[in-house]
Design brief:
The protein is an all-alpha fold. The protein folds into 2 domains: about 90 residues, no CATH class; about 50 residues. Helix 2 crosses helix 3 and helix 4 packs antiparallel against helix 5.
Length: about 140
């Protein structure tokens, strides 16, 4: 139940951020916006380190762990966000976000199967099919 609440909360935060970012992108270019976004994140992380230090456990951070966490940050926080903002620049969040989220959900199942050798259930395979069908419907029924 706790995992569900965290996931729902994250979804609500991402939805709010998407609308706020669309407003910010009315005058900014996506790549320039990433510098502002990254600076804001670094500032908030730096300031929050003191009061939230009890949540930081630096043990277990070996080179491999730092590499994969850093790579994930570059992929999700830079590359994916740049591509998402390029989309958001020319369309609305109600179009871009469902396609981005649906694509990522389908890709997570496939990549987990291939790279992590995860077990994939029939329900997950059907879910991926439904996500792909949903993306196709969103594209086909997009207001012109």
């Amino acid at each position: 139940m706790i995992a569900l609440l965290y996931a729902v909360a994250a979804g609500l935060v991402v939805a709010t951020a998407s609308v706020v970012e669309k407003v910010g992108l009315t005058t900014a270019q996506p790549y320039a916006g990433l510098f502002i976004r990254t600076g804001a994140i670094a500032t908030v992380l730096g300031v929050s380190l003191v009061p939230l230090n009890k949540y930081v456990d630096w043990h277990g951070l070996d080179g491999r762990t730092m590499f994969f966490l850093g790579l994930g940050g570059v992929l999700a926080g830079l590359v994916a966000h740049f591509l998402y903002w390029q989309s958001l620049k020319v369309t609305s969040p109600d179009y871009a976000v469902p396609i981005m989220v649906g694509t990522s959900q389908a890709a997570v199942v496939v990549l987990s199967l291939v790279l992590l050798r995860a077990r994939v259930s029939v329900g997950q395979v059907l879910g991926v099919g439904m996500v792909i069908a949903g993306i196709a419907l969103i594209q086909l029924l997009k207001p012109r």
